[in-house]
Amino acid sequence: MTPVLAFDIETVPDVEGIRRLHGLDGTLADREVAEMAFQLRRQATGSDFLPLHLHRIVAISCALRERDSFRVWSLGTETDGEAVLIQRFFDGVAKYTPQLVSWNGGGFDLPVLHYRGLVHGVRAGRYWETGDDDREFRYNNYISRYHQRHLDLMDLLALYQPRANAPLDDLAQLLGLPGKLGLDGS
Asked: Model confidence over 106-137: pLDDT tens digits?
């Protein structure tokens, strides 16, 4: 039986990256840099949701079902940096070769992991495998949209129609579950 790894990431603005891209020195506080980026984004798009490459990962939480066991945990510690969190995630993919399960993971979590992994030089050979070294991955790998090694539940339930996407919090509450408890992604 293939292990199943459900995961979610939490992010904050990458203020150092924003400083680098806009030629800012260290005189502005992090909060001011983030607010500047939000204002620029609102002017450009009407929303303050930053582009995916400007999100810094601060937490990755996982639930792993393997045979008869089930574990829930968050990767790393409060003192671990972003690179450590991302490397541990991809090390877990290499160790277990699980089916990944996410909510909007194809639209947010995995692209953010890709960009931030690239920034930090993270190694993720098993994740990026497309069949050159392991023939089983030729027609079922993590990065092809219609393969099953990654299942984005939001995409599947919406039949891959962005207009049909629903927030996980809303669906949880409709199912009688508590939904988000005092926190949200913002």
From this structure: 999 999 999 999 999 999 999 999 999 999 99
Band (pLDDT 50/70/90 cuts) for residue 183 is low
Residue 182 lies in a domain: no
Distance CA 41, CA 37 (A): 6
User: Which structural domain range is residue 37 located in?
Assistant: 4-151
The model scores a pTM over 0.70: yes
Q: Would residue 172 count as lying in a domain?
A: no
Number of domains in the chain: 1
Phi–psi pair at 20, nearest 5 degrees: -65, -45
Q: What value does the mean pLDDT take over residues 11-20?
A: 97
